[in-house]
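Late entry, evening session. Most of the bench is empty. Finally got around to the prediction I had been postponing all week. Sequence below, unchanged from the version circulated by S.P.
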Amino acid sequence: MLAVVEIGGNQFMVQKGDIIDVKKQTTDEKKKMSVEALLLSDVDGKDVKIGTPMVAGSKVELKVLEHYKGEKVRVFKMKSKKRYSRNKGFRPHMTKLEVVSVA
């Protein structure tokens, strides 16, 4: 089964066994969380269920593997001919999730 889920403001196409990186979630490490799917489909794409906005009765189980900091993102601002430039950076907090089941 394939599913499209929305986590942290982003949409991901997942199936059982996938590992995805999302914005930080509040669930503790090694715990499970579940979300509803926006779209469900079998692997062939013949049986498709589209939600408005969620598919009723759908459930995607996710296991939190770890919380970590992502790659550094550079933020550079500059105004030409004004001798103004600013270079900042930050590392976003991320969560690694494993898809346990799609139903």
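Two things to note before I forget:
Residues 2-67+94-102 form one domain.
The chain has a mean pLDDT of 95.
Will write this up properly tomorrow.
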